[in-house]
Specification:
Strand content: under 5%
Oligomer: single chain
Largest sheet: none
Shape: globular
CATH class: Mainly Alpha
Number of domains: 1
Number of helices: 11
Structural class: mainly alpha
Distance between the termini: 46 Å
């Protein structure tokens, strides 16, 4: 680990920013609020980041890295389809807990902040790892052998893009509910059929 990631003040800033961004989105949160929440000064903030968009990118990096590690562990240790699905749903639920509609709008739908493109790049990293992992799961007969993985991932990307649709967002009381509904729909499509074995 480099000095930045092991620095307590740096980690406090990341944690505070993540909590505030999840709750209010990026646009409504000021650097002053992040510093107040992190119990640190603006001087310390600017030691690590030039603006709050850079903090948001660091949070995304941290989340992607953690998710990939957690997913790899799940893939290697899931003995059954049920364990895999339960683990995937738990990971997703923990990852989106208390996420706000404002967060979705700022991070995924706003074209002015540069985060949508950044998340797109990071998502490509996740999809590459997912494809590789799913192939191993097919070999172990944990997910359907006849499933076209490239099609599944393509469809997943398209469906995930629905979180940018204001009408769809309005159908759910929280952003977390919407994301979990999409996740449930995608996840249970991976269950092996009884006639396959």
């Amino acid at each position: 680990m480099n000095a930045i990631t092991t620095n307590k003040k740096h980690n406090d800033i990341l944690e505070a920013a993540k909590n505030l961004f999840w709750k209010y989105g990026l646009k409504k949160v000021s650097i002053e609020e992040i510093c107040r929440e992190a119990k640190t000064s603006k001087v310390t903030f600017y030691k690590f980041y030039s603006n709050k968009v850079e903090v948001a990118k660091a949070i995304i990096d941290q989340m992607v890295s953690g998710s990939i590690d957690e997913f790899k562990y799940l893939i290697e240790n899931a003995a059954t389809t049920a364990e895999l699905l339960e683990g995937m749903l738990k990971m997703k639920k923990e990852g989106v807990h208390e996420i706000s509609k404002e967060f979705l709008a700022d991070f995924y739908a706003d074209n002015t902040l540069g985060l949508k493109e950044y998340i797109g790049q990071k998502t490509q990293e996740i999809w590459a790892e997912t494809l590789s992992s799913f192939k191993r799961l097919q070999e172990r007969e944990i997910i359907r052998k006849d499933m076209n993985l490239e099609f599944f991932l393509y469809l997943s990307k398209k469906i995930s893009g629905l979180i940018e649709d204001p009408y769809l967002v309005s159908l759910f009381p929280t952003a977390e509910d919407l994301i979990m509904e999409i996740t449930n729909l995608l996840t249970y499509g991976m269950t092996p059929r009884n006639d396959q074995k």
